[in-house]
Amino acid sequence: MIEKLKQIFSSTLGDNTDAYLANQQQSKVLAAVALMIEIIAVDNEQHETEKAMLRQILASQFDVEDSDAEKLIANAERAHSEATDFYRFTADINQQYNEQEKIELIEMLWQIAWADHELQDIEEHVIRKLASLLYVSHKDFIATKLKVVGEPS
Fold this sequence. Notes:
The chain is mainly α. It has a single domain (17-149), classed as TerB-like, CATH 1.10.3680. 78% of the residues lie in helices and 0% in strands. It contains 8 helices and no strands. Helix 2 packs across helix 4. It starts with a helix and ends with a helix. The relative contact order is 0.13.
């Protein structure tokens, strides 16, 4: 499938096909990581466990090596600090992610929020808002929360 995409793009992009596809992939990951940075920062308590979970997600879900993870996190932090809202990131995600990938992203946001085993109301609020902006159903929002956090006691 990747080869077919390269062929399609090469007819319009010429020799820049690989660079274009790499840039699209970076944009896709950067937008997701910027939203993860928001979840880490939203409660004004940056726990190392949340950052460790972010690095773990980058390795397991996005195949980002440790050496590249810190650069990616720094770029995402810069993009996050320059943004005035979520639109820049959610628009990229809505264009580049399918429905299942968006649901998986919401699950990753829950994993980061729950990494310290404390779920703040503001974290839940922001994840709910992001789920809405990404057109993830309330049912899937709740299902991903329960999958990560578990049933309320």
